[in-house]
Amino acid sequence: xxxxxxxxxxxxxxxxxxxxxxxxxxxxxxxxxxxxxxxxxxxxxxxxxxxxxxxxxxxxxxxxxxxxxxxxxxxxxxxxxxxxxxxxxxxxxxxxxxxxxxxxxxxxxxxxxxxxxxxxxxxxxxx
Length: 127
Description:
alpha+beta, five-stranded antiparallel beta sheet, 42% strand
């Protein structure tokens, strides 16, 4: 698997218009009708996945291995949240990203995310 082709600085974005299914109340991570931290983290993971998806060898994908993030401010239903990810390190199959999430111009979360390049077929065969 050739991950050496992945260049630092690859960027990805993902956007979410917050709906009732994305709230802490709906997801069970809290009891308020605001963007749930798990939903924000999933959006950040999606941004990281898309940052490298086009540069991976055929038959490969990435899977999440670790994520740490702050969640600084609440976002209400109908807010548009944009997650951004930048590939900052590569070590064989291990990819490290900086991640951020914004509600408009306001930073609502930031952190670090680790993903691993895997062969789709072999990964699923291990299940």
